[in-house]
Fold:
Amino acid sequence: MSEQDTSSGGWFGYAPGRDNPRLTPEQREHIRQLEQQRGDLVATVHVLVYSSGQAHPSVSFPNDSPLSMRTFDDDDEQHRAQVAEVVRLARESLASWD
Structure:
C-alpha cells in the first residue's frame, strides 16, 4: 500500500500488518493511526489495467472477512448489497484520488 507523506510532499509504500523497518518512526506512527481509524479490512477491490486499454475488476476478501465468498448463497441479496457497497466505496475513492 502507499500513503502520502505530508512531511516531504511525496509518497511511501508499506506492507499492512508488518513492521516496515525501512520507514521512519513518524511514518510508522502515521500508518498505525491510519490502521486504527480504518478498522478491519473486509474486502479488496482490484482493477487490472492492460496495455490494450481493457480493465478487469475483481473483489477479494481476507480469510476473516464477514463478506467471504464462501458465505455467499445465490439468493443472498444482503451479501450482494454489501459487496455492491464495497465496490461503490472503492469507486468513490478512486474518483476523488489525487
Notes: Residues 89 and 95 are 10 Å apart (CA to CA). Strands lie at 2-5, 10-13, 44-49, 55-60. The chain has two domains: 2-38, 44-95.
